[in-house]
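Sample pair:
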Amino acid sequence: MSGPGGIGKTRLALRLLTAMAAEFPDRVWFVELADLRQPDLVISRVAAVLGVSEEPGRPLLETMADVLRRRRLLLALDNCEHLIDACADITRQLLASSPGLRLVITSREPLRVAGEAVRRVPPLSAMSVTTSGGAKTGSQDEAVRLFAARAAAAWWNEGYALGTRAAIAARAGKLREAEQLASASVIIMRRIDQRWGVARVLLGLADLARLRGQPGEAHDHYVEALPVLEEIGARPEIARCLAGLGRVALDLGAVEQARRHLTRSLKLSQATGTRIGVARGIEALATLAVREKQPERAVQLAAAAAALRESAGVPPLPPARIETYLASARHLGEPAVARIWAQGLTLSSEAAVALAVDARPSKTADGDARALTIVEDAE
């Protein structure tokens, strides 16, 4: 959709997304680019909206292409005129690798990519037509509705920025600052009824609560976020949420619930092609195997997770964590431990996932399961 600034392209794009939502099983998505000034950040903005997490050592666009290859969705990029080259490049690559993807672009000028159909947008009315009952109220005027939509977009940008700052603070170990920023982001997202934004920030708050040793608070945040993520079909984030619920269950000794959540998370990461999610899921189930006194299985899974991390070019498992798995099997003797570790290193990704989700009888009690909300598999 092309036309001068302020003509109503965003308004029309939002109407189009609403009208066509039922035709796309993986939903419609809207990415606002007006506030972005750096072309190299376009891909990060799109990934954040779609819920695609970056994998260390792998181009984000490649990860996104893998995820979208399996989806049928409609994606709108709004206000592309100052980022034409970056938007055109992303459009070409995603369309080439994602047969189920359709794009709506709003810009003052076309992207000029293959297959682009340009629609010129006529001006919106400055004042509604007067009816026999007099002039319509301001809330009914197209210009006023456009102003309201842009005000909501500004709040979205503020909430998104706060969430990003919270994530940066958390990575730097500034947990209190991260919590304050994330809480402020949630307030803004709730104010504009942006449930997707609320769910993403809740995941961050849940992770922070786990780091602070507050599993009950973490559990509540994960449980609140999960239905929203499932409603919009954000599968990578659903996998992250389920993994968090599984780890909380492990923290509280609820082994069977941990197994259910971690298994669902791992299968979803595998289905979406998120390699770091697969590696982390296998390692989480290795921790479960230690808890269930299955040392051989734990060592094999930990080795497989280490191999997957290396193949994906992401940081290795910390030595202290590896030692936890090895120590659980030391009673078998060092030669046996070395042999089991070597076997795990040779497992393919598919074989490692199959081993990880192969449920075994638990040798421990299910702990404080009553303290947790059971989130059943909706599949």
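The first strand starts at residue 28 and ends at 32.
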